[in-house]
Structure formats: C-alpha cells, structure tokens
Amino acid sequence: MLPKRHPARQLPTRGTALHVFQTGPRMFPIRDHNPSTGTPYVTWSLIALNVAIYLWMVVALDTGEDLARLYYGWAMIPARITAFENPVSLVSSLFLHGGLFHLAGNMLFLFIFGDNMEEQLGHGGFAGFYVASGVAANLVQLGSEPFSIVPTIGASGAIAGVMGGYLLLFPRARIDILIFLIVFIRLIPVPAWLVLAVWFGMQLLGGIGTDPETGGIAYWAHAGGFAAGLAFAVPLWLRRGGPAFWSRTHGLPPHDPAPPLGRSNIPVVRKRR
C-alpha cells in the first residue's frame, strides 16, 4: 500500500466511503410520453457498456485489494486531481458503479431521457454532450472537496446533464411516475419540468446538508451536471428559435405522445354480424 502521509496517494479499500452518482431511487419514473423517431445507438451503447463493466467487476474482482486498486486507478479521487494526477478518471469514473441498484437506477434514467436528447443532438453530438456533462459534474464535485480522498463513481453526473438538456427542450413532456402510498401503487403522469425541478432541488438540499467526507450520494456532482447539461443545450435551443421554439411547441415534444401504458394505439375493428 502506498504511504498514507500523502493524501492523494492513499489507496482506498473495500470498506472506504464512496461518492456515487445515483439518480434514484427517491424518484421512480417509468417512462416519458416522448418516443424518439430514430434508433438511439449511443444511448443503447452507453447502457450496454456500463452493464458490461459492472458485470466484469463482479466476476473479475476477487478481493478488497482488487477493488481498491480499481478505484485508485479509475475512480475520480479529488485529492489526486488536485495534485495533477490521473485526469483520465474524470471520464473513466462515469462507467463504474458500486452495486446493482446503483447501476439499475442510473440506466433507467438514461433509457428514459437519453433517446430524445440523442435525437436532437445527433449521435456524435450526444456522445460529446454526455461526456462533457459528466466531466463538468466531476469538476463541481472536485470544487466542493478538492482534497478529499473519497472516490467518486457513477454515470449520473452525465445523466443529470442529459436531464438538464431535456428540461430546456421538452419542459411539458409527460413523465409517468410510480407513487407508493402504503399498500397502494399508482402511476401518475406529471410534466417533465416538475419532475426535474424537484429532483434538482433535492440535489441542492442534499449537498448543503451532507458532510462530503462521509461518502454517500455525490449531490454536488448531480447539481453541477444538471446545470452544465442545461447550459450545453442552450445553443441548440437558440438554433431552434429560443423562446419562439417554446411558443411553437408549447414545451411539448414535436410528435404525438406515446399511448398510455396498458393501452394499444392499434384501432379496434369490430366484426359485422
């Protein structure tokens, strides 16, 4: 193990605290009513890559020392970045996850919001937007705790950027949200601006009320990624006409919404007697 006197060179262990980029499970969206008209190859590829890396971690990492070395080399450790070490971790950390639920929550949000942003930005533009949002999220987390040795991992800094861009382009798209009321479960469609504004507010409150050295959810990375994604989407929004774009679309998707769950969009044909 490397000497502990240099904080940037402490090797994290299996029992160490982690900062994770995790979009759920406080909110549980099922889908949006905004089907894309093309094939979201980049979104699907990102989901497949994240799942593949997680499965590799489960199979290949046998000991806590293995995991510690992986985090030291590829997770974003603020103290290392501040010491001008390992800048690649600003990107590589976006593809590491700390557990199955961590992975599943992030991939659900990417599946819901990624295809529409990919359709608007194009495949290459969306890939760049995703990585830039994730790097911005990491830099905000770094700014909140520049000398921390707590590793930061997870995709949702980048996914938060996708959500910020989605808010700018489709504020009134409908999102189906699962609500748990004791023994009752209800599916409620709500406008995207409400879902995303509440989520963003929760990240700000979490960042203010959490000690960054204890690990847990990387709230400031979420908030920073969301703000960065919204800012990165402004040029596209302006090319679409800015406020005039909202006036034309009323904040809604530019095509018919998806049919409600459990219903078919195929017309019923009745037999004649």
UniProtKB/TrEMBL annotation:
Residue ranges of every copy of the Peptidase S54 rhomboid domain listed in the record: 89-237
GO CC field: membrane
BP-aspect Gene Ontology terms: proteolysis
A GO term, aspect molecular function: serine-type endopeptidase activity
Organism: Limimaricola soesokkakensis
Location, primary (coarse class): membrane
InterPro entries from the UniProt entry: Peptidase_S54_rhomboid_dom, Rhomboid-like_sf, Rhomboid_protease_S54
Location(s) in or outside the cell: Membrane
EC number: 3.4.21.105
Class in the EC hierarchy, top level: hydrolase
Pfam families documented for this protein: Rhomboid
Keywords: Hydrolase, Membrane, Protease, Transmembrane, Transmembrane helix
Gene encoding the protein: glpG
Membrane topology per record: Multi-pass membrane protein
Transmembrane residue ranges: 41-61, 94-113, 125-143, 149-170, 177-202, 217-238
Protein name as annotated: Membrane associated rhomboid family serine protease
Top-level taxonomic group: Bacteria
